[in-house]
Structures are given as structure tokens and as C-alpha cells.
Predict the structure.
Amino acid sequence: MAGASGFLHVPGLLCVGAFEAVLGAGIAMDLAQCGRPQDLEFTRDGDTTARLGTQVRVSMLVRNAGRRPLRGILRDAWTPSAGNGITATTTANVGGLGQLPTEPRHTLDLAPGAAQRIDTMLTPTRRGDRKPDFVTVRSIGPLGLAGRQVSREVPWRLRVLPPFHSRKHLPSRLVQLRETDGRTPVLVRGQGSEFDSLREYVIGDDVRSIDWRATARRNDVVVRTWRPERDRHVVIVLDTSRTSAGRVGDEPKLDSAMDAALLLTAVATRAGDRVDLLAYDDDLRTAVTGALPGRTLALFSDAMAVMEPALVELDGASLTRHLLTRVRRRSLIVLLTSLDTASINEGLLPELRQLTRKHTVILASVADPRIAELADARGSANAVFAAASAELALSVRRRTADELGRIGVEVVDAVPVDFAPALADKYLALKARGRL
């Protein structure tokens, strides 16, 4: 029986051996006939910049430079914050079949010398420079038994800019600017403005605007009108210290400050003023100065794209020295920082006194709307306790703002939804009063 049992195993072993031989031959044939992914040539094109949250297209042309057809799968990997994989389309055979919806993994079917375009739609979820990971191609033989795989870097850079939500407020602020600037019948008066013309006095005019010499030569009382000065200098300083990393609402304070800075820049450049941008914490991080008016907003957006908070304290003394040394001409200094009592009283207050002697200074801070909501809450012991704490925080904030006002600092303190337009309104008000 033992011999018979051994004899019975021989056909089974022969079948296994035959199967392995056939499988090995099939694998060898697949490997011999499948295309070499090393022979593929990759070229990228498409968008290089995008506003945060908008959709952009990055394309890649894949060309088979080998002698064999290549069939397989391609994966174009990006970092998760680039937002790839939400929508992807493939255009097969350049100028040919049109766009077909696919998954992030794309099917390749390339004859020798043929090309295929891979279009990837990206919706970035974070600011900064977003770069692709490896492009991985797996070439599969005609039998599907074996294949070759290679990963390769295909460089590209997509710079994701701040979203500029406050752009919607720009048209209304430009209307105010035209009224202030005298391109409508409304002309303003104020110290430091340029004389424009004489007109008859009407009820409500400031009596200090009466030109008595001109009035003596006429039968009517006449007043002078002025145009606001142009070509003023505005320096926007973004605080990138640790306090800018705190979140208010759905975004960090730094992002709210950037949005307000972009709206202010758009209004000020339209007003004919020159705007510079600094990012500062314990040292100068970024400086964009001397930009042409038509390029200022684009250059600021590009510089802001890669700004990140640093886990250090704002060095008020160093910042003040930098401003007093570099900004010689009287200017409007706009400091976008936190209205934090400790940092203001200990670090910034003495330095701001120096700045206000030479420059007009605005300190702008984004407020947390949840504190005001807590201050109004009632209904339980916990809610009353939270309301008392919130009211104390608000009163301390108001006292800090009043103290800044006493040394000549203009303060803008608003919740995120109102922050950017409030800062633009403060600029327009100062311009109308001839304070720039």
C-alpha cells in the first residue's frame, strides 16, 4: 500500500510541475512583451497659482518613447492638502477622444510613439506651495500575469494664495474713495489736503473754510475746497508671532489679518498711495517694498501664501527700531496684531509712543465673536458665570483700546466678518481728514 500511495502522488506532482512551468512561461512571456515604464516621458503644464478653495487644472503629457506598446495604470499622487482626487479627467490620445471621467488612478494604453494627457483637477485646502508626490506607473503584460512598475518624480509647484474673501467689499469702498478724492461733487476739507477750487458757501459748510479775501472781492461768501493728498506711504505690518496662530471662528488670526491687508492694499493703491508689506515676529520674516501699483496686490498675495506663524513673541522694540530706521517719510503704519493686554502693556505700548511721534499708527485686531455671545448668555448658573468672565474680558479689551487711543493710536477691533471692511473704512476716514 505504501508503494501504491507513493505511485498515486506522482501524477499530482507532475500536474503541479506542469502548471508551474506553464505559469512561469506565461510570466516570462508577459514580462518580455509588456512595455517598459522606464521608456515613458512626462511633461507637466497647467496652473501654477490658485486662490485657496478654488479649482485648478494641472495636466501631464505621457509619451511612450519605447518600441513596445504599454498598457497599465498610472497614479499621479499629490499631498492631501492639494485636494486631488475630488475630480479627475483623462484625455486620451492628444486631440482625439475627448475627456472621460476616471478615478485618481488613470488607465494607460499607449502605442509606440503615442501620447496621452492626464488632467487632474485640484481644490487646495491650505495656503502655501503644494507639490506632487511620485508618479507611479505599472505596466501590465497582455496576459495580465506579470508587469513592471516604476515611480518617478515629475516636478511641479502650485502656489496657493490667500482666498481674499473681502474682495466683495471693494466696490463700495471705491465709491467712498471717489467721493473723498473729489471725482464726484463731494469735496472734503482737512489739514494736509491740497487746495482745489473756490465755490459759494452753503449752509453746513465749515466756517473755517471761508476764504475771506475772495469773499471781499465778490458779493457772495465763498469757501475753499481741497482734494486729499495722493502718493502717501502706507506700511502694513503683519504680526506672525505665536498669537497669530490662534483661531477665531474657522480660520487663524493670521489669515483674517491677511484678508484685511489685501482689501486695504486694493483701496490704497487705487487712491494713488504707495503700499509696503512687512511680516515680523522676533525678526523680519518678509518684506515687499517698492512694488508698482498694478503689481502690488499680486506680489502681496504671493508673499502671504507661504507665511506661517512662528512660536515666538513679537519683539516690539526690534520692530519699532526697524520702522524708525527704514521708514523715514511720515507714513501710515498699520499693525495687524492681537489686542492682548499683556503684550500691549509690556511690549508694544512704549514702542507705539515713539511711532506716533513721527507716523500715523493704526493697530488692528480681530475679535472673537464667541466672547460677545457668551457675555449675552443667561439661563443657568454656568451661563451667568461665563457671561461675567466674558464681560470682564471685553472690558479689559476696551480699556486697552482706550489707552492706545490716548497716545494717538487709531484702533480697529472687529469680528472676522467685519474686520477687513472696518480697517478699510478707518483708512478712508483718515484720508478724508487729511491725516495721512
Confidence is low (pLDDT under 50) at residues 85-103, 183-192. The longest strand covers residues 56-64.
